[in-house]
Amino acid sequence: MLEQLRAELGEVLVTDPVALDALRADKSGQRSDGPPLALVEAREVAHVQAALRWAHAHDVPVVPRGAGTGLAGGAIGRSGELVVSTARMTRVLEISADDELAVVEAGLVNAALNAALAPHGLWYAPDPASRDISTIGGNIATNAGGLMCVKYGVTREAVLGLAVVLADGRLLRLGRRTVKGVTGYDLTALFIGSEGTLGVVVEATLRLRRLDRGEVVTLSAAFPDVAAAAAAAAAITAAGIRPAALELLDASALEAIGAHLGLDLGARAAQLLVQTDGAAAAVEAAAVLAILGAHGGAAERAADADEGERLFAVRRAFHPAMERLGTVLIEDVAVPRSALPDMFAAIGRIEREHGIRIPTVAHAGDGNLHPNFVITAHDGSGEVGVPDEVWAAADDLFRECLRLGGTLTGEHGVGLLKRRWLRDELGDDAVELQRGIKAVFDPTGILNPGKVF
Amino acid sequence: MLEQLRAELGEVLVTDPVALDALRADKSGQRSDGPPLALVEAREVAHVQAALRWAHAHDVPVVPRGAGTGLAGGAIGRSGELVVSTARMTRVLEISADDELAVVEAGLVNAALNAALAPHGLWYAPDPASRDISTIGGNIATNAGGLMCVKYGVTREAVLGLAVVLADGRLLRLGRRTVKGVTGYDLTALFIGSEGTLGVVVEATLRLRRLDRGEVVTLSAAFPDVAAAAAAAAAITAAGIRPAALELLDASALEAIGAHLGLDLGARAAQLLVQTDGAAAAVEAAAVLAILGAHGGAAERAADADEGERLFAVRRAFHPAMERLGTVLIEDVAVPRSALPDMFAAIGRIEREHGIRIPTVAHAGDGNLHPNFVITAHDGSGEVGVPDEVWAAADDLFRECLRLGGTLTGEHGVGLLKRRWLRDELGDDAVELQRGIKAVFDPTGILNPGKVF
Prior knowledge:
35% helix, alpha+beta, 7-stranded antiparallel beta sheet, Vanillyl-alcohol Oxidase, Chain A, domain 3, Uridine Diphospho-n-acetylenolpyruvylglucosamine Reductase, domain 3, 3 domains, Uridine Diphospho-n-acetylenolpyruvylglucosamine Reductase, domain 2
């Protein structure tokens, strides 16, 4: 059966066992039951179309995949599935400075796009922590945010149009090149965050910004406890200040980062990192400094951009520091910004009651927290599943988050990891409507089955 | 049959012939074949639910309606239809300054919302020209933009969540109170711009901004011809400047406004109005002045905010001026910003070739043009349809717009007026998928039939 596809695709179809084994995991710590049937390493749109036509004809489940850096298991390949990767489709098809847009293939890495844009004085704003390794297609699949989306918007606000391959192999163009438009339903927005369940994104028309951010001021403040830091963060946004980045690190996170970087971060209970930019950077920074001080923060202002970068390097080292600790379950809840102190209090309670260490960082400016449940010290023996007691603690976390008016996932997606809580947030009616929409795009259910729903 | 609904709704159900006759029209100049069956003037969500339950049980078509200010015929009631109006559901349910959000009923008028927000120092940014008369629900139905969306975003960027009544009367809550989230498909975005075809929006959770815009600088420039003005507008956005408003008026529009306001606007061939705000207002205004001059514009800077308001009052008088001219077909195409000069050249050609006067204003900062096809002088005799020769000219316009990479409608919607061009823009596959989505929400097809599709 596969030979038919091989005849059409040649070396684009990969069945090497080592390559297939790698597709069983992503960065979520999950690992599937067994290797997928095969991998299509598409170089062009026609390869994706051929793969989907074949899968549709033979009723083979398809897992769309980019760089495999997802944190919710959405791109994990299982036995009997065909993984269709766009990771080798990395071309920049167009850059228009006049219209502030770019057209790119889905496999282009986020940071590579920005490297290509820089000579044109342009910038693609969504900056997930994975920006050096994750693809634009993957960013679209999960509606990725990042450190600067608090001011510059998430992926949904940065995508004008898409080209997608449907379940039966047809190519469909959605959206537009204009900044406004309301001709029919917004299918582009529907695809963003759909985690490969509606079609395979092969190309995107992206809305760009100018690279010049003007003056950039970076502030850092140590706090005596995480409650004070969370209150300060909520007070900054409540004051109407819109920093370019506003990051919070708790004591556990700081300790792990200090160990990883070999830095003495002291016995800091919590730290806030704030960046302001543009014409109002200095005025906003002064207002932020006053708020930090009023909440008991010991604040310092970076002398220059290099020192600012070094301060943020501490934050960017969080994920590597966690990997060094061993296996972690990386969570991604979001709450209304005013509920940030309550959410941190709940995390403290869950740590104590469940006896689990939960280092947490937060994109505090938009109420998005990443609590990392430390499962085990890494012993080099390979993968570790998520034990029941960790899921019990995560369940406690999700319920607190929903109670505070929050959401299960701010920017990582549902994937495999959060399916069981989907109805708790959305309700039965909304889930049934969503399944109805999926059936419109994928009537035979071959697209990423078992993910999200 | 209707008596059953009357028993349930009492005076909320209106069958007065004068009231029903008014529902045959909106602000599009279209008028339906006959008055609808009845009007439900809902005061609360339960009224909308009762109306939909009844309509669903009796297979009666439902037309959701707000203030009836639509420009595409989307809320026009026809014979045999039940109009469900949310115009009397005008409560502000919650204002949270800390979380920069408000929860409001759908019938609240846009300007009334901003009046309620002002004492809290908050602002809802989407500002359609109809802001004094159009409702938040209507703004959501058409994804309304306005003068300032070039910098502050359209309706889709300002809505966090919705409550909607489904075709069978069930109430469904969509979206969230958090600024980020990716749990399941974005049904909120799907409803925005859906023109009453998926459900009845009864409540919205809106994302707010701070009212304080900082310094506001207003510039005005007269140009020797519209091509120069369009080129200047494209040059301003291409320079990376993001004005708070950037409006273009052509000679015909200026002449009509001058007559309406009793102002001597001279024999201006075109005018650009530019507003910059915030900490960079002065720097950006200086850069804009240089670009205006380089393109042959005779520019002036308003001495103060009052003079700035007077300059913009000229632009805001456009629609009243058009109403004074008689019946007009108000169009709403959008093109990539760099194509603005080409689009204005096409409008000039269409005016000459079709012998029709087409006064045009443009939200030039986002490439959205409103060409107004003047049909006839108003003789007081009532409604006038759109003659075939005007549709032929409009058809020419739409084809030019699509050829330039544009879209049929930037912010008014498809409604009745643009159905016939829908497939030209979207293609057959996308239209079929959209109809499939509609069927998921509205399996028996009672929601606003004949609109959009």
